[in-house]
UniProtKB/TrEMBL annotation:
Pfam families: adh_short (PF00106). This is Oxidoreductase. Keywords: Oxidoreductase. It comes from Algibacter mikhailovii. GO terms for molecular function: oxidoreductase activity. The keyword Oxidoreductase applies. InterPro entries: NAD(P)-bd_dom_sf, SDR_fam.
Length: 316
């Protein structure tokens, strides 16, 4: 195993300096790693804008956070359904109205292992539409403020990037021919990761070095992910796995995204997550990423397709 730049215990939130005056925008904070990341950011004094699809759950989350951390925390909720481009655009507008800067946008929300092919209102396969196109549009629309703030864009990917067909199925992006929950989820997470490295390339070409972009993943963490969108069988398997040492707490699963959002001078070319067994658990740090995730030809084609599909372009 490579030595971890943060020592034997890996990166932990002890490294985060006080965050008073800093503003973070986090998607999907009603459970799992997004909730834990938000809690830690708030506990360090940051302000957090939470973007969630369920207003009631978001209100309940604020209630819990205040109960645990006190009424002084600065947290607010904006409604956003990543599966609906109109909602994402409206949320981005709302964010720009309420914050003067963004130190980091953490794209954490996702669905996984959707049993049958479903399309979003915009006509994309549900995981690609939610996890990829939703985040794509949000990032592009918030980019100008992130740039002005010298901020960061953090994408929470998955080891799934390496479990499907390991490329983008451009000739059948919606899996009309042979839908499989795992392949479709894996493609959406690969697309998310690829677009971060492509964003780095484009920022470099445009001579923009104010924004940093990072890709990470939470390993195998005990969250609601499969319970929310997976099949009965996947829920059964994942809930059994939760009892084994092959999974870790949601809090630990939040460390990679927190590291990417706050650690000074972190190398953008890295891929960050647990470095223990199979990269599912263990000390957090950089670890290997397979070359297909950094394939420039595929990434460029995906970027151009995304601009066409969403009608959104990045204002570099
Ligand atoms: N847990 C793991 O082992 C694992 C492994 C690899 C990667 N990941 C990644 O980790 C990230 C966090 O997931 P998690 O494991 O913490 O799962 P989680 O507990 O299910 O949390 C996912 C969050 O995303 C939100 N969300 C889902 N669909 C949304 C939409 N259309 N619009 C807005 N928000 C939406 C959920 O909201 P609701 O409460 O409304 O459902 C929830 O707040 C995801 O990107 C996931 O792909 C997790």
């Amino acid at each position: 195993m490579n030595s971890n730049q943060f020592g034997k215990r890996g990166w932990t939130p002890d490294r985060i300096e006080p965050l008073n005056g800093k503003i973070f925008v986090v998607t999907g904070t009603t459970s799992g790693t997004g909730f834990e990341a938000t809690k830690i950011l708030l506990s360090k004094g940051a302000k957090v804008v939470m973007l969630n699809r369920n207003k009631k759950k978001a209100e309940h989350t604020i209630h819990i956070l205040k109960q645990e951390l006190g009424n002084q925390i600065e947290v607010l909720a904006i409604n956003m359904d990543l599966a609906d481009q109109v909602s994402v655009k409206k949320a981005a507008e709302d964010v720009l109205k309420v914050v003067p800067k963004i130190d980091a946008l953490i794209c954490n929300a996702a669905i996984a292992q959707v049993p049958q092919q479903k399309l979003t209102v915009d006509g994309w396969e549900s995981q690609m539409g939610t996890n990829y196109y939703g985040n794509w549009t949000l990032q592009a629309l918030l980019y100008p403020l992130i740039e002005k703030s010298k901020g960061r864009i953090v994408t929470v990917g998955s080891l799934g990037y390496d479990m499907g067909i390991k490329t983008i199925k451009f000739d059948d992006l919606n899996w009309d021919k042979d839908y499989s929950p795992n392949d479709a989820y894996s493609q959406s997470k690969l697309a998310q990761i690829m677009s971060i490295y492509e964003l780095q390339n484009r920022l470099k070409k445009a001579g923009k070095n104010n924004v940093k972009a990072y890709a990470c993943h939470p390993g195998s963490s005990r969250t609601n992910l499969i319970n929310t969108s997976g099949s009965f069988m996947m829920k059964f398997i994942f809930n059994l796995m939760k009892l084994s040492p092959l999974t870790q707490s949601a809090e630990k699963g939040a460390y990679p995204q927190l590291m990417c959002a706050t650690e000074p001078d972190l190398d953008q070319s890295g891929f960050y997550g647990p470095t223990g067994r199979s990269n599912w658990v263990g000390p957090v740090g950089a670890h290997e990423i397979k070359p297909h995730a950094k394939n420039k030809t595929t990434a460029k084609r995906l970027w151009e397709l995304s601009e066409k599909e969403t009608g959104v372009t990045w204002n570099f």
